[in-house]
Write a structure and sequence with these properties.
278 residues, alpha/beta, Rossmann fold, 2 domains, 9 strands
Length: 278
């Protein structure tokens, strides 16, 4: 059985390749635009290409039974067409927790929901991985922490359950190798409910500095984030923080249940990534 990992140089995909190799998975193929930069382990077959370049997919999909699908909702229809033509049987989708909101009528998760529905309606055997916020997102604070010892962000009261990328990759590895998870939507999170000011304090403890958190209004955050990601994405992100301030999130047990080990707490993540903030 050949497993294709798409986005193999991405944040989760590259970790997943290592997970599969360490688990002794049979035939692993990695889809990447930059094989040299990927520095893939020995024994991993390299397929040069990208989900955003559908012309590269037929060769990459040849002989593939199971796929880990990185999220690119805008071109999912092209992927589906190519995967059906190639005879792909199973697709494990990296979706997102907001897909649940769209299913309940909230459009904030439309792009993840579109991804999931396209895979389901095409008739593949599927599993959807739905992580919430990534711990790595807080690496975006590194610049202001280094320069000023401060983090400026909106909704300090928002309670979230961020997850480590390694935990997502570990769950994906198990699901790819164990077909008993077929047809399930796995909500995923870190092991704790935590606010942004609490995260800032843990980073400070990890680097031995006293850091400040300064709250931004929604308008201030929108003005700051729009040049970086566009107004639509900035508004979507702010809506997520607003929802977390109104509805306290609770940790999901999925990482422990699927992998048999507890999810990484933010305190440990901050220690492991301390060099990024110094």
């Amino acid at each position: 059985m050949t497993i294709l990992v798409t986005g193999a140089t991405g944040s989760v995909g590259r970790l997943l390749v290592d997970e599969l190799v360490a688990a002794g998975a049979g035939s692993v193929r990695a889809l990447t635009n930059d094989p040299v930069r990927a520095a893939l382990p020995a024994g991993v077959e390299v397929a040069e290409g990208y989900l955003g370049r559908p012309s590269s997919l037929p060769a990459a999909l040849k002989g593939v039974d199971t796929i880990y699908l990185a999220p690119l909702p805008a071109l999912v229809d092209s992927f589906v067409e190519c995967a059906l033509e190639a005879g792909v049987r199973r697709v494990v989708v990296l979706s997102g927790e907001p897909a649940e909101y769209e299913a309940a009528g909230d459009p904030s998760g439309w792009h993840y929901y579109k991804l999931e529905k396209a895979i389901e309606e095409a008739g593949f055997e599927w599993t959807h991985l739905r992580p919430g916020q990534f711990m790595n997102n807080t690496l975006g604070w590194a610049g202001s922490i280094k320069a000023e010892g401060v983090v400026r962000a909106p909704y300090p009261e928002a309670v979230q359950t961020p997850i480590d990328l390694g935990d997502i990759a570990a769950v994906a590895r198990v699901v790819l190798l164990d077909e008993s998870y077929t047809g399930r939507r796995l909500m995923m999170s870190g092991p704790e409910a935590i606010t942004q000011p609490e995260e800032v304090a843990l980073i400070g403890a990890a680097i031995g500095r006293s850091l400040r958190f300064e709250s931004l209004s929604r308008a201030e955050a929108l003005a700051a984030w729009t040049p970086l990601m566009g107004e639509e994405s900035a508004s979507w992100l702010l809506d997520g923080f607003r929802m977390m301030s109104e509805y306290r999130m609770a940790p999901e047990p999925t990482v422990l249940e699927v992998t048999g080990r507890p999810a990484l707490p933010y305190r440990e993540w901050a220690v492991r990534n301390a060099a990024s903030f110094i």
